[in-house]
Amino acid sequence: MKIAVTAYPRTKQGTSASRRLRTSGRVPGIIYGADQPAQTVEFDQAAMLRHLKLEVFHASILDLTVEGVTTPALLRDFQMHPFKPIALHVDFQRVDKTKKVHMKVPLHFVNADICVGVKVGGGVVQHIINDLEILCLPDDLPEFIEVDLKDLQLAHSMHVNDLALPKGVEPIPRWKKENPGVATVQLPKEAPADETEVVAKATEITGQKPEDAAAAAAGSTKDGVKKEAPKKEPAAKKEGGK
């Protein structure tokens, strides 16, 4: 999927100039890389916000056009306002199609519902990482990497080196060496019993009246350990042994 992005030359720089740009509905930015000088540019705010909402926009070779000249580029960084839906700044890197790029690509997990560890073992799939850092030539860059969980068993994990990566794509050397986990299947943690359940069990086992069992349950700590009643101090002996 090719995404076209239009940039406009930006002549004025500095904090005040950037603030005025944002007020007028523009986003300041910069384009660099491919052994060419960096170029300051600006973008339409509304169009940029639409792009930033797309997952594919963050991991694709983009067609970036400035004054009629289109260049392949990657989104490298962006800053958002802390609480307003406003992009503050965007950075793009020109792409040399003969050199490998280092990118972070999203993982798409599939077949979790028919996973062996879930269907047979009663476990729950847990995602350990949701993005993978890869190296590849620009033309081989995938929009995402699919992770098939159907054969993952209970108490087992899938690791980076277990992934079926597209042709020409490989993990960055550090991840290839360390081989971190990507997903695992574990039994769900048991929820703590509520007070009603504790009372019912105590009544059944000890034969206590419900109200007595409730009082005993109320004396338990949050982790289920019953608090001991405070010990009474022995009465002081009367003088003379009376």
In terms of structural class, how would the helical and strand content be classed? Answer: alpha+beta
Low-confidence region ranges: 220-226, 238-242
CATH superfamily membership of the largest domain:
Ribosomal Protein L25, Chain P
Spatial strand order of the main sheet: 1-3-2-6-5-4
The termini sit apart by 99 Å
Q: What is the global morphology?
A: elongated
Number of helices: 6
Indicate the CATH architecture of the largest domain.
Beta Barrel
Structure, explained:
- The structure is a single chain.
- It is built from 6 helices and 13 strands.
- By secondary structure, the protein is an alpha+beta fold.
- Mean pLDDT is about 85; it is low at about 220-225 and about 240.
Question: What is the compact description of this entry?
Answer:
This protein has 6 helices and 13 strands. The protein has 242 residues and is α+β, with helices and mostly antiparallel strands.
